[in-house]
Amino acid sequence: MTSAIYLTTTEPFSGKSIFALGLMNMLASKAERLAYFKPIISGSKKSRDRRLELISKQFNLTQSYEEMYAFTRKNAIKEINNRNEAYLIDSIIEKFNILKDNADFVVVEGTDFTDVNTNVEFDGNITVAKNLGIPAAIILNGADRSTSEIVDLALASANSYLSRGVQVLTLIANKVQPSKLDEVKRRLRYVLPESILVNVIPSHQQLSNPTMGEIMESLGAKLLFGKEFLTNRVDHSIVGAMQLHNFLDRLDQNTLVVTPGDRGDILVGSLQANISRNFGKVAGVIVSGGMYPESTIVKLIEGLETVVPVLQVEDGTFMVVTNVNQIRARIAPNDKDKIALAIRLFDSHVDEKALSERITSFNSTILTPRMFQYQIVRRAKSHKKHIVLPEGNDERILKAADMLLRQEIVELTILGDRDEIRSNISKLNLSMDLDKVNIEDPAISPSFEDYAMTLYELRKNKGLSLATARDLMHDVSYFGTMMVYKGDADGMVSGAIHTTQHTIRPALQFVKTKPGVNTVSSVFFMCLPNRVSVFGDCAVVPNPTTEQLADIAISSAESAQMFGIEPKIAMLSYSSGSSGSGEEVEKVRAATELVKSRRPDLKIEGPIQYDAAVDPVVGKQKLPNSEVAGQASVLIFPDLNTGNNTYKAVQRETGAIAIGPMLQGLNKPVNDLSRGCTVIDIFNTVVITAIQAQES
């Protein structure tokens, strides 16, 4: 069962409150702990978001106001302008997951600001929904639209979400003319996929038109009289600038009168007409121009039993009327009548049973790069491990270490000259707390002699002398690896300066491989726009044999499982199935059969071409009966030449994030960096090393 849903609209004032209130009311009968979350709010810390106030008060939510949002609009725009979109999404994911962990169901509300480019905001809502991994409920504004226009808007909106991998549970056409309900519902059901539940809610005047209280707040008006009637609904507005008898002819039900402050005749006439059986109800009066009614008029009004709201504004009559016409109705937290009406509309026009069934049956298979990175960081934090970074004289290492320590993800030892490292930390203006990091210089370390003697004992049968062991222990790669071997660190990450061979040679010499594993190999976690794939081997084994290729496939599948990715293995080649032949194809075919015999529980296909492995359409055409074709998550390359070039091509051409390489098959985690690595590459590699350490 999904535990959240994303409410989104294509434009402001689509009537989101109606669906939000009704949905929360429905969920309250099924779940004990409800939460409401709005990633980006329109208000500020001083001016609270209206809908959050409404939902929190109506359903007595236990979460604080600050827990109900991640960013104010102002702060979100600042992060976007600074190109910190990743931080923005990560923060939203983190806040959402905190709520999700403490609630049975979370309703998430997207943005619908009035002064933001609609296409940009719409795309942003899709991105957030996708990275939260939750389905969407799309609410359309059907007011003043023909049936064809509603259908076109619905189709375009639904396709935008579906094409980006976000499931749409329901589409709600709101504010539809009552006479069009059946026609709109019929046509929407015809054009939309059956998986999308169609609901149509009619327009309702009481919800569509503002109250005197809303008008007073929007105009910043001063209340002169009639506080108890601020909930009066305004259906029409007229200007009282003509003679009284002509003015009275224009009064209709729920009319707002706008008149200059010196027109006492219009003001008194309006109040009298309101209590007369022969005229429609007057909702209220606005006196304009900054003029206060004459004292005798005020005295007369004060003596009346029933006085509708009388507001005073500084603006002229024309400006007031213009501003009033732009005011949109909202549902206030204390407006019990509107709240009850909204819930009744939902109950009457939304198929609650079908909606509940879709919520219950939803299961997301999408794993976005941001979701993956959030999950691995959270997992690393859950059981902190100690990682050693041998290359403390590299600025990238220090910057990554600063990020890791500030987020309290791991404990760190950095190898190198203490004074040099401290100087570089100061020069880079890093906030690293030196009390929280262990800086170790191998040459003067208290562990140096013990480490050298241990290396000598491990390698003396290979002809290693004690003097050579001491020389090697001055090498940071050997010293860092020995820390891992002795249990003084849980894992090591190196290679920003050193070659792959320099980094992993000590691990191969004395950390050794796990029992039953004959091949040390590597994988990259390729964070593509719509999924995370595992690529192996792209860094270690140049030209694997059949047995090594099978080892790589099994190890890569286990690595995928370790990180929450269901392994569906594609053994890549230049042909698919039985269509081709040749020495290289036969090696892949034999490796595939070897994996099947050793691990019959794994889903595997090979030989298979890359397009047939990842493209559902091509996969179905070439291998229609395969449970891997078109949906492979673990891609095994036939040799290092192919794998290394492919991962770099995919990374450069698609903008994918490549996390790794992660070495697999060793008894304890030691991971290699590319010498062209970025700070984020180092950060991510340390995180996955920490997770490996949790599993070893």
Please give a quick description of this structure:
Helix content is 46%, strand content 18%.
Description:
With 696 residues, this protein is of the alpha/beta class. The chain is built from 28 helices and 23 strands. The chain has a seven-stranded parallel beta sheet, sandwiched between helices. Helix 18 links the parallel strand 14 and strand 15. The longest helix is centred in the first third of the chain and has 17 residues. The two termini are 32 Å apart. 47% of the residues are buried. It comes from Algoriphagus limi. Keywords: Acyltransferase, ATP-binding, Cytoplasm, Helicase, Hydrolase, Nucleotide-binding, Transferase. It is an enzyme of class 2 (transferase). Pathway: Metabolic intermediate biosynthesis; acetyl-CoA biosynthesis; acetyl-CoA from acetate: step 2/2.
How many helices? The count is 28
Over all CA atoms, what is the radius of gyration?
34 Å
Strands ordered across the widest β-sheet: 3-2-4-1-5-6-7
Which percent band covers the strand fraction?
A: 15-25%
Low-confidence stretches: 114-122
The N- to C-terminal Cα distance equals 32 Å
Please describe the biggest sheet, giving its number of strands, its sense, and whether it closes into a barrel.
7 strands, parallel
Instruction: Please report the total strand number as a whole number.
Output: 23
User: Which class do the helix and strand fractions yield?
Assistant: alpha/beta
Q: Name the overall outline.
A: elongated
Mean pLDDT: 87
Helical residues, percent:
40-55%
Organism: Algoriphagus limi
EC number: 2.3.1.8
Function: Involved in acetate metabolism.
Pathway: Metabolic intermediate biosynthesis; acetyl-CoA biosynthesis; acetyl-CoA from acetate: step 2/2
